[in-house]
Amino acid sequence: MPNLHSFQTDDPRLVSVHEKVLAGLRLDSEDALSLYGTRDILALGWLANSVREQKHGNETYFNVNRHINPTNVCVAACRLCAFGRRKDAPGAYAMALDEAFQTAASGYSEAVTEFHIVGGLHPDLPFQYFLDLIAGLKQRFPHVHLKAFTMVEIAYLAKRAKLSTRETLLQLKAAGVDSLPGGGAEIFTDRVRHVICDHKIDGDQWLETARLAHQLGLKSNATMLYGHIENDHDRVDHLLKLRALQDETGGFQTFIPLAFHPDNTPLAHLPKTTGMLDIKQIAVSRLVLDNFPHIKAYWQMMTPKIAQISLRFGADDIDGTVIEEKIYHDAGATTPQGMRRQELIRLIREAGREPVERDTLYRPVTRTQTSVTLAV
Ligand code: SF4
Q1: Residues whose beta carbon lies within 6 Å of some atom of ligand 1
Q2: 1, pLDDT greater than 90
């Protein structure tokens, strides 16, 4: 549906951006900084929405997935994190393989089309554990897409197994990994990374791991953690690096801006993001990442209400009916751990959008009372 309202702004910086967007021209770093700097959220939203509607019309995607976090033991101790624990800390856990399979089965119904599998960097679990985990899940749930291991986990597994990143990815793919999630990207700039996550791979290594995965035919997502100590320049740098890699590989499916949740982290003194920043981040992402098919408003982090509004500010995906999300709830997210399918559909419809249930690769899922089929 075309954007029928005329464009209006009281911010002169947005006039030239508007002209570029209308002409389908790529925005540069100065444009992106203007977008971050504006307080005219409605004009920014108009621009992002026009691109969103050109790409997807009214369609808004969601999926039915289950999160599996095999371990929260992590050697990295990122300051941004409330999930990772030292091995001997209270609440630390590592699932035995059978336990992981039971966890998968306990939330499983025919409706689940994806397992989203991420966890900490465990110092003792061998690479074979992860190969067995994936192969075992694939054997038990052959129709479920396995979206597993962030670039950070891949790099750590490679180091522990003394394999190249490429060989590590190849073995995981052979075991049954279908695609990779987008986590661990945080903010690529070294200055910021040294404060929020100084023990994990740097931005260039994250991008190189994604490049290798894409070259091997594994799609991935990409994220950006915002709302902590980064500034607009750091955010723009992050977006432009992702855009450049996407030009090269075309392997990214979805960009997911993640609002920082400070509770229970060493950065708990920082304020939470505001609704204005959350919505602005969605809109700027849609405008700058012109080669990313999808922008996701992750309701678990943004709250369902802000995510719903984001559907008119550039987002075309609202994640899914997540079952048992741990990572952001350890960081103080007060959203429910899962949302019923009907509730998600109601949110989307009330935003004036058309819900489309998808699988991980954005193929529409058609449901009847008794079966699920994928339109390929
Ligand atoms: S963010 Fe990831 S790598 Fe960092 S401490 Fe948490 S679980 Fe570990």
Answers
A1: 74, 76-78, 81, 83-84, 120-121, 152, 197, 200
A2: no
